[in-house]
Design goal:
There is one protein chain. The chain is mainly α. The chain has one domain. Helices cover 73% and strands 2% of the residues. A two-stranded antiparallel ribbon has the order 1-2. The termini are close together.
């Protein structure tokens, strides 16, 4: 269990690093959007590339922070139904939901999006709009974002199992009497 908890910690740190880095893309998207609007209305000109950059940035924020959002327990949940249940029952519900809903959906989307990205990359697909951008970077965001989500789902399940087995309290802190590195 100690090795799995270390793996969980690595996944948590990865998604934290990605999530905190991607925050800055929101500011960049706002600046690009504002700059595009100012140029469009003051100079009466525009570029599809700038509009597509906004779309790419929004996609990056949405897709690359899905795992970080799960780590922070901020996804839409059924808390209204489970808030009165014990923490152990909630852990079981999280495990069930991860195994039977999150993993199948995220793995399927990730798996099905890889050939779409590869085809776009190999063919050098360009936007159909005049002056548009290459498309493969945006298509790479899909399998990457869902891979981060799958990894974080695995981390969350590891933490729930560790909690249920008494290795940690409250999905993160080591349980009293348990010390890292000891075999059980």
């Amino acid at each position: 269990m100690t090795l799995l908890l270390k793996l969980s910690g690595l996944i948590d740190r990865l998604n934290t690093m990605v999530g905190r880095s991607v925050y800055w893309l929101i500011l960049l998207a706002v600046l690009v959007s504002a700059g595009n609007a100012i140029i469009r209305y003051s100079l009466n000109t525009s570029s599809n590339a700038w509009l597509e950059i906004q779309w790419y940035l929004f996609s990056a924020v949405f897709l690359l922070t899905a795992g970080y959002t799960l780590l922070r327990n901020e996804h839409i949940r059924i808390d209204v139904l489970t808030s009165g249940l014990s923490q152990r029952t909630q852990a079981w519900i999280d495990i069930f939901g991860g195994l039977f809903f999150l993993f199948p959906m995220a793995i399927m989307i990730m798996w099905l999006s890889i050939p779409i990205f590869v085809d776009s990359f190999v063919t050098g697909e360009l936007s159909s709009d005049a002056g548009g951008l290459i498309r493969w970077p945006a298509k790479l965001l899909i399998p990457t974002g869902f891979a981060l989500l799958v990894l974080q789902g695995a981390s969350e399940i590891i933490k729930r199992v560790a909690f249920l087995s008494g290795h940690i309290d409250h999905y993160g802190a080591p349980a009293a009497g348990h010390h890292g590195g000891e075999s059980e």
